[in-house]
Design a protein that fits this description.
Number of strands: 4
Shape: globular
Number of helices: 2
Strand order of the largest sheet: 2-3-1-4
Distance between the termini: 29 Å
Largest sheet: 4 strands, antiparallel
Helix content: 25-40%
Radius of gyration: 14 Å
Order of helices and strands: EHEEHE
């Protein structure tokens, strides 16, 4: 299944409770429409989340965001994956 990297900006004033609630909603809506939320990274300096998903297509990514009520700035299709162990 294709993988996507999603960039989002959320208000820096979100409380831990609001973030937890958004995470639960993100997880449940992902499961409802058949996409897999792999993991997310947060940069407090940039105020951005970088989220990795497996989904059948980009439209499913946008539908999940609409249902979870979270913004999307940019979606990238991941073409390949690299890690340091590959370069000895």
């Amino acid at each position: 299944m294709p993988r996507f990297l999603v960039t989002r900006t959320l208000p820096p004033s979100l409380t831990e409770e609001e973030l937890a609630s958004a995470g639960r909603l993100n997880k449940s809506t992902s499961e409802e429409i058949g996409i897999r939320w792999i993991k997310s990274y947060y940069s407090a300096n940039d105020g951005k989340f970088y989220c990795e998903y497996e989904a059948p297509n980009v439209e499913a990514i946008y539908e999940q965001a609409r249902r979870a009520q979270v913004p999307i700035e940019f979606v990238s299709l991941i073409s390949d994956e690299f890690d340091p162990s590959m370069f000895k």
